[in-house]
């Protein structure tokens, strides 16, 4: 039989063991709580970031919607001026389409007419305010769009940069660029089928948009026009039929903002 001393020792050892187990369990519970707390904090931080990002995207979409509505309120009825068209260009009867032809048209060579570069201006000029229009470029491999001053040189070879009164973007060899002198390559999300042109004459702003998805393409800012400006169109030549599609001044449709 165990002595009373041995019993007391056994009781003490059991108590110590129970205390050790209790402490271990509390430490484990504390460690789990800290880990869970860290996970919750990380999850909360992620949710806060996602919320901020969504709010920023919503704000941007609201801004784009308001901008689109503003531009729609500033639409103008742009038509082509046959008196400025290069003789190799073919214009539709309603003045809304232009494409390159294979033969020279029998037209007088007036001071207003481009005689070498296959270009044409809009019939309506602007010397104040804001205006917006859209041009369908679907199916084309080459085009140039924008605005130009009334006093531009229309004879012989021309240099189409702001210094000489042009604010344009173009498509060449699958590459889009703003003709800022030097050219600025444009990084776009897709291949535009319609291009929107917005001008704020008084603010000196010319902006271009992919009108199908309402993405901003490029803006010329701080422009001092100082004279009347006109929409500018260059459909390019046929190039064996690969660029035979016309440029079309198209009706403006409200597209979903992406």
From TrEMBL:
Keywords from UniProt, A to Z, are: Coiled coil
Please list the coiled coil stretches.
30-78
Q: Which organism is it from?
A: Coilia grayii
Its taxonomic path starts at:
Eukaryota, Metazoa, Chordata, Craniata, Vertebrata
* Pfam entry (one): SPRY
Query: Organism's domain of life?
Result: Eukaryota
Q: Which InterPro entries match?
A: B30.2/SPRY, B30.2/SPRY_sf, Butyrophylin_SPRY, ConA-like_dom_sf, PRY, SPRY_dom, TRIM/RBCC
Record domain B30.2/SPRY: where? 58-252
- Quote the protein name from its UniProt record: B30.2/SPRY domain-containing protein
Which SMART domains would you find in this protein's record?
Answer: PRY, SPRY
């Amino acid at each position: 039989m165990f002595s009373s001393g041995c019993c007391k020792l056994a009781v003490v050892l059991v108590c110590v063991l129970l205390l050790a187990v209790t402490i271990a369990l509390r430490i484990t519970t504390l460690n789990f709580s800290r880990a869970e707390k860290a996970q919750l904090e990380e999850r909360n931080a992620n949710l806060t970031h996602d919320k901020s990002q969504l709010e920023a995207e919503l704000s941007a979409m609201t801004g784009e919607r308001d901008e689109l509505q503003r531009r729609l309120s500033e639409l103008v009825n742009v038509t082509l001026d046959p008196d400025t068209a290069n003789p190799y260009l073919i214009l539709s009867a309603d003045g809304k389409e232009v494409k390159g032809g294979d033969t020279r048209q029998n037209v007088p060579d007036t001071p207003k007419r481009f005689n070498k570069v296959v270009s044409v201006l809009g019939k309506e000029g602007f010397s104040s305010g804001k205006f917006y229009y859209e041009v369908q470029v679907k199916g084309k491999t080459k085009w140039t769009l924008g605005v130009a001053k009334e006093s531009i040189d229309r004879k012989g070879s021309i240099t189409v940069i702001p210094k000489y009164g042009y604010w344009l973007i173009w498509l060449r060899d699958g590459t889009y660029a703003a003709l800022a002198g030097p050219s600025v390559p444009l990084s776009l999300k897709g291949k535009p089928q319609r291009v929107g042109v917005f001008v704020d004459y008084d603010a000196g702003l010319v902006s271009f948009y992919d009108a199908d998805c309402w993405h901003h393409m490029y803006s010329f800012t701080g422009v001092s026009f100082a004279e009347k400006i006109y929409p500018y169109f260059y459909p390019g030549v046929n190039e064996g039929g690969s660029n035979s599609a016309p440029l079309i001044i198209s009706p403006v449709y409200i597209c979903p903002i992406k």
